[in-house]
Each structure stands twice: as C-alpha cells, then as structure tokens.
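Quick one: structure for this chain?
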Amino acid sequence: MKFRTFAAFVGPSLFLMFVFIAAPLVSVFWQSFHVTKARFETVEVETCTPGFLKPTCVTEMVTRPVLDEHGQPRLETRFTGFGSYRNVLEPDRTLAALRDLDWRALLTIDFWKALRFTLTFTLITLPLVIGGGLVIAVVVNNVARSLRGPVIFVSLLPFIITPVIGALSIRWLFIGDGIMTAFLEWWLERDIAMFAQGGTIELLMLFYRVWHVAPFAFVVFYAGLQTVNQDTLESAIIDGASRWERLRYVVIPHLMPLIVFVALIHLMDAYRVFEEVVGFSSQAHVISLQWLTYDLLTPDDSGNRAISRASASAMLTMVGIVILLVPLLLRTWRDQRPGGPGGAGGGR
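Got it. Here's what it folds into:
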C-alpha cells in the first residue's frame, strides 16, 4: 500500500486520537504537578460611618483578589512537584495507620477508601461476569433453535438498559418501602434498612454490575461457540468425554482469546466504576477512584475546584488500570508473537 493511501486511511484516526486522548492526557499530567490559584493582596481599607459632628472611621487590613483590567481575578500557576499526589495519598497518615495496623484509620483517607472499593469491585465482578456470561452462552447454545431468539432477547435486556437507570431501578427495589424490601420484611418478620450500612450497599452494587455486564460476555462467548470445531467435539464424545470434560478441554481453550478480551474490557470499565456510586447514592459509605476525581472537580461553597488534586487522582487511577492490565496484555503478546501458540509459526 502506498504511503499516501495509508496516511489517508490512518491520518484522521490518529488526529482524533491526538485531540481527544493524547492532548487531554498530557494536560492532566501537567496539571497534576501545578497549582493554579487566584492572586491575592492585602490592603488597608478605611470604612467610615456617619456620626454626630464627624463620621467614625475604622481602618483594617483586608485580603482581596487582584483583578485585571477586565475585572477578573488574576491567576498564577506554580510548580508544586508531587505536592498534589501527597495531598491525595496523605503519606504521613497512611504510614501511621500501616505502622499500627489500623485499617479503620487507613480507610478514613479518601484515596485508600476509594481504592479498596475499586479493587474489590473489579476483582469480584470479573470472574462472576466471565463465568455468568459463559454459563448463559452454553445454555443458550444448547436450547432448541425455536427458543433461542426469545432467550437471547431476554438475556440482552439488562445490557440494553442505560447504566444509571439500571442502578436506580435496583436501588428503588430495595430502598425504603421498595418491593424487595417489603417482601423481605414480610418474609423475615423484621424491619430491614438495606441502605443504612455500606456492606449491603456494596453487595447490591456488585449484583447490579454482574447483572448489567454479563450479557455482554454472553454475546461474545455465544459467537465464539459457533466457531468450535464440531469434529473435535464429536471425537471427544466418541472417546467418552463427559459434558464437563468437553467444556474444560475443548470449549474453554477455544474461547480463551475471547475470555482474555472480555477480561480486558471489563477490567478497564469496572476500575472506572462511577455510575453505581451515583445511582445508589453511596457516597456516605462507598466511593470509587473515579467518583473521588469527580468530587475533587466539583466546586466547593466558594466556587473553587481542586483541579491539581483531581488530576493527581486521575493519573493514579490510570496507573492502577495499567497495573491490572499488564498480565493480560503480556499473555496476549505471548500468544500473538511469532512462534507463540496463536502467532505465525506456532503449533499446527
């Protein structure tokens, strides 16, 4: 292919990736090492009030922002190094909590509280999503052809629902006098407050994520099942392999590239969990790294935003995603390189 033709195809994509991915990423990285604040000055102000014979005047020192010619506060940007990262990680409190093995104190720090939930949420839902999607795919693949269409349609409904709407729907089932809460109270003959503690909220968030994402894994695995070599399956049946043995030694190895693909997508998506925190209103009990960044960007009562700390939190979130993806990326690279199991020159 000529270079001009190649550039015509690839150029627009590279340009959009630079504008919407590379440039914002560089900007966030730069902002995490700098703090931009309004410039203030301390001036002497005399205030006079009318009085008998002569006014009463009071002189006091007032701190006020420096304004430019347009009446807007003048901003100044200064390099702070790893100051924003220290403000997010709070190393002094962290080391003290680790030294005393005081996990409660450690989880009072917003970053470590968010990291604990984010890792728990990601690593627990990953096997459940993959396992649930695989089970649904195998079941649907063995259902009579006349029933596959309706079963597939019903199975895809959770994935079609908008994430925030789905989270709110699950929340409304259990909060206050929701249908499920009323049923549990009738069945157990006791009052239940599902949203009064972080543990039950976290369980509902885990359930929602698996319920919402498992259909995506099902679609991918179901497509992969259509490409399984039938001769190999028939040979396994003739050799006396059970259904479980055929699944373990024939189907799963065939689907392994798709399992790695689903795991990559889910890790990237689950580590950026945000909709569940908003939908379940769990900020008082459970927060995620993505929500922490959003909270730092939310203006306070004075209208100020902690942009530098939010940038540092975002960069730390990206580092965590990369660390989680490294094992899967290494496996994919080994499988696809020449001489590897899936690369050119590999096994026949």
